[in-house]
């Protein structure tokens, strides 16, 4: 059984997936990590990106400068569409390969663009980490040390809170502290174990 875990930027997806992995031993596939793998030096996707945007999107090490690329694609929606068209199929292949190797009772596919990219169709259930948009803004601006306007641009490129919640089978609220978050995850883990074993809830 595959659970799709999503939420907007700054919602706390990492804290949720980490607790599933560390406390409960669940196999986690993170689409963000896969998106880094497909643009590693020597990979065809990185060559295509440099061909389109020039060396300005490279660090001196030859690795992708993600901040520089983000600036370009979020100031021009057409460039973002082009980049997603290049990367989404490659990321999907990496995800499928990793999920196939899972040995835990169920696996988690963590993706900020689970709904937008159609990755939710690869899952059996969708779990949304939900927070207010004000909390998203505050957490992300503090964490990434970026201007509020850039955070707003990223949020606008993601599904709206309402759109994500429409796809949710399960919801974790992350407007409280870490203990409250872990308690919700622990309860969901028990529910998912029952579902994975074929029990109805």
List the helices and strands and how they pair.
Elements: E1 2-6, H1 13-24, E2 27-30, H2 31-37, H3 44-53, H4 66-75, H5 77-100, E3 107-110, E4 125-130, H6 133-144, H7 148-157, H8 161-167, E5 170-173, H9 178-196
Parallel strand pairs: 1-3, 1-4, 2-3, 4-5
Helix pairs in contact: 1-9, 2-5, 4-5
Order of helices and strands: EHEHHHHEEHHHEH
Mean pLDDT: 91
Tell me, briefly, the overall form: globular
Q: Approximately how much beta-strand content do the residues carry?
A: 5-15%
| Distance, first to last CA | 15 Å
Q: Say what the CATH topology is.
A: Rossmann fold
The name of the CATH architecture is 3-Layer(aba) Sandwich
- Which ranges are low-confidence, i.e. pLDDT below 50, for 5 or more consecutive residues? none
The beta-strand count equals 5
Sheet/helix structural class: alpha/beta
Please summarize the sheet with the most strands.
5 strands, parallel
Strand order of the largest sheet: 2-3-1-4-5
InterPro entries: Depp_CoAkinase (IPR001977), P-loop_NTPase (IPR027417)
Pfam families: CoaE (PF01121)
GO molecular function, one term: kinase activity
Protein name: Dephospho-CoA kinase
Explain this structure.
Helices cover 55% and strands 11% of the residues. It has 201 residues and is of the alpha/beta class. It has a single domain, classed as Rossmann fold, CATH 3.40.50. Helix 1 (13-24) crosses helix 9 and helix 2 (31-37) crosses helix 5. The longest helix is centred in the middle third of the chain and has 24 residues, at 77-100.
């Amino acid at each position: 059984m595959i659970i799709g875990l999503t939420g907007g930027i700054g919602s706390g997806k990492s804290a949720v997936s980490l607790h599933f992995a560390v406390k409960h031993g669940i196999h986690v596939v993170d689409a963000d990590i896969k998106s880094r793998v497909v643009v590693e030096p020597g990979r065809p996707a990185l060559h295509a990106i440099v061909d389109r945007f020039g060396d300005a999107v490279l660090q001196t090490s030859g690795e992708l400068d993600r901040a520089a690329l983000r600036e370009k694609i979020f100031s021009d929606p057409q460039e973002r569409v082009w980049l997603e068209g290049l990367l989404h199929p490659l990321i999907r292949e990496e995800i499928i390969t990793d999920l196939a190797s899972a040995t835990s009772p169920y696996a988690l596919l963590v993706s900020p663009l689970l709904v937008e990219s159609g990755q939710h169709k690869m899952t059996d259930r969708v779990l949304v980490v939900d927070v207010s948009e004000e909390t998203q803004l505050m957490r992300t601006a503090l964490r990434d040390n970026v201007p509020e306007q850039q955070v707003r641009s990223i949020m606008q490129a993601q599904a709206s809170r309402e759109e994500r919640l429409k796809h949710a089978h399960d919801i974790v609220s992350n407007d409280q502290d870490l203990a409250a978050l872990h308690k919700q995850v622990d309860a969901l883990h028990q529910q998912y174990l029952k579902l994975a074993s074929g029990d109805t809830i």
